[in-house]
Amino acid sequence: MMSSRTQISRTAPTQFLELKGGERYAYRRFGGGSGLPLLLLQHFTGTLDNWDPALTDALAGERELVLFDNAGVGRSSGAVPTTVGGMAKHAATFLDGLGIETCDVLGFSLGGMVAQQMVLDRPAIFRRLILVGTAPRGGEDIMHLEKPRLAKHLQDPSNKGYSVLKKIFFTLTPSGQAAGVAFVERLAERNQDLDGVSGPEVANAQMAAFRDWERFTGDRFADLRTISHPTLVVNGIRDEMIPIVNSYRLAENLPNVVLVTYPDAGHGSLFQYHDSFARHAAAFLSISSESAVY
Amino acid sequence: MMSSRTQISRTAPTQFLELKGGERYAYRRFGGGSGLPLLLLQHFTGTLDNWDPALTDALAGERELVLFDNAGVGRSSGAVPTTVGGMAKHAATFLDGLGIETCDVLGFSLGGMVAQQMVLDRPAIFRRLILVGTAPRGGEDIMHLEKPRLAKHLQDPSNKGYSVLKKIFFTLTPSGQAAGVAFVERLAERNQDLDGVSGPEVANAQMAAFRDWERFTGDRFADLRTISHPTLVVNGIRDEMIPIVNSYRLAENLPNVVLVTYPDAGHGSLFQYHDSFARHAAAFLSISSESAVY
Predict the structure, then answer these.
(1) Are A170 and A239 in contact (CB under 8 A)?
(2) Chain A contacts of B260, Cβ < 8 Å?
(3) B269 to chain A: nearest residue by CA?
């Protein structure tokens, strides 16, 4: 479905950052404005092609976006790390390689975990954080795709390619499914220079990272209380993949956070309500104060 | 502390609606614009004088506000009901008396419970609901002022008049207390035509209503699932009076709700972040769609 919006996401070329003695990272960088660059960190098995162009087009009007394939994902070289910590190191190395000292970050799902780990490792790397459909270390029920409500869609052979996303990222209500169909159509707007669909080697390593992220030692959520960065947490209230309780724990333990939940929405709430989410995110990112309240 | 804002809340006259064979209700009605009227329903022991003028001045620019003293509160006649249901009947009678068939509502704390009951009793009475620092019927830990963390402030004789509010409505952090001091100063801007402070007969009856509201029969929260009205739920993440878990239950059970939580904020989050709350509320109220997502 075409629209009148600026369709920069559809044609932005994939670029490659090749680091001497390191990996070759695939990324796309587009948009501009007075805001800091915004790093986008992607979900389980997701690639550069999995960002909703309606959302990225909207956000790109006021700042430069940097979409990133972590090691071993899409057309980035290397092995997919089996820990969030390993992914965080790659993402930081990538930012260093681009010469970006400080930026904002939008981390969705697995990407939100990577963002949390990056800011714990190097607080100055981010100014403001947007964490969507994600969980803190020690969170609950993170990405258990073997749960019957998820497994039945993943094992259904009629859900080919990205079309399974409309079943697992969206509620099964008429409005949820309509939003899911529209989302999958928008993903298909870009039809060249594609990463393609991730294989089982990506899924298996990332799943190991989720299992590790569920574990914690010592004072649960203590790490969160050291992150003073302004943070916006967003989640669909019916998220089956990373349930809402994880966003509650983020809101209760991050010292400087606004939580927003969307109704009749699952894991892909930011895509279902892309207009509102882009407005909320832009309002949050436009603030120069020390407070998360926008 | 004076500011450059329109200070309509400071001088709006108290009016009285006297119903034949019924009560005399005190109210204030001011502001205007293209929006529906907004009914404001007040917290435990609160009167017309307890609305933050910074908030009401901001909201009054786009709609008419109707501030209301329920029966037996402030200068309204009658006995304070000992149930939320009784308060809901008075508020509906009051709207009928003013000839307001449908309006929006902002219910804070006890007022949020009254708003829920009103819309259950008469769905057409409201278009959109804003529920702040409140709980569903069957909620948890509602207004237990005997808890040590609250009782120590309420029993401290140095907390005279409204100044106790800065201890129980705000966090005890420096920024929370600074916001509390500013709030109490703003309440003092209005210095004539006042309701005055509520006495124990108001507190005792309203406390009985809280105890009743904690009880439920049958399917817990089933009533909420019948309220399809667009609803905005707002709460401070550190609310000691009506803890955040009650807002989670509202967000999970109301079908059409956006939840927003504010950091380092207690029960009075809407006053602490009055600028942001007024923006969020105005954005929510300005939408004409069927969705709560603004």
Answers:
(1) no
(2) 258-260
(3) A293
Q: Answer whether residue B263 shows pLDDT above 50.
A: yes
Taking an 8 Å cut-off on Cβ atoms, the answer to whether B259 and A255 are in contact is no
Asked if A263 lies within 8 A of B276 by C-beta distance, the reply is no
Residue B4, pLDDT score: 56
Residue B262: list chain A partners with CB under 8 A: 258, 293
Name which of A254, A260, A293 is nearest B258 (Cβ-Cβ).
Answer: A260
Q: Do A258 and B262 touch (CB under 8 A)?
A: yes
Inspect the interface and report whether the beta carbons of A237 and B259 lie closer than 8 Å: yes
CB contact under 8 A, A294 and B276: yes
Burial grade of B27 (CB within 10 A; 0-12, 13-18, 19 or more): buried
- Angle formed at CA A172 by CA A168 and CA A177, multiple of 5 degrees: 85
Which of B133, B193, B194 lies closest to B161 in space, CA to CA? B194
Question: Do residues A230 and A129 touch, judged by C-beta distance below 8 A?
Answer: yes
Compute the nearest-CA separation of B287 from chain A (Å). 12
> Is B255 in Cβ contact with A260 (below 8 Å)?
no
Please give, rounded to a whole number of angstroms, the shortest distance from the CA of B244 to a CA of chain A.
9
Kindly indicate whether the ipTM for this predicted assembly is greater than 0.90, answering yes or no: yes
Tell me if the pTM is above 0.95.
Answer: yes
- Residue range A230-272, pLDDT digits in tens: 999 999 999 999 999 999 999 999 999 999 999 999 999 999 9
**What's the rounded Cα separation, in Å, for the pair A256 and B132?**
20
CB count, 10 Å around CB of B191?
Answer: 8
pLDDT in tens, B161-184: 899 999 999 999 999 999 999 999
Nearest to B170 by CA among B133, B144, B130: B133
List, in sequence order, every residue forming a beta bridge with A24; answer none if it has no partner.
A18
Question: Which stretch of DSSP H or E encloses residue B276?
Answer: helix B274-285
Query: What digits encode the pLDDT tens for the residues A92-124?
Result: 999 999 999 999 999 999 999 999 999 999 999
Q: Tell me how far apart the terminal alpha carbons of chain A are, to the nearest angstrom.
A: 32
Evaluate whether B223 touches B137 at the Cβ level (below 8 Å). yes
Do A112 and A136 contact (CB within 8 A), yes or no? no
Q: State the CB neighbour count (10 A cutoff) for residue B196.
A: 10
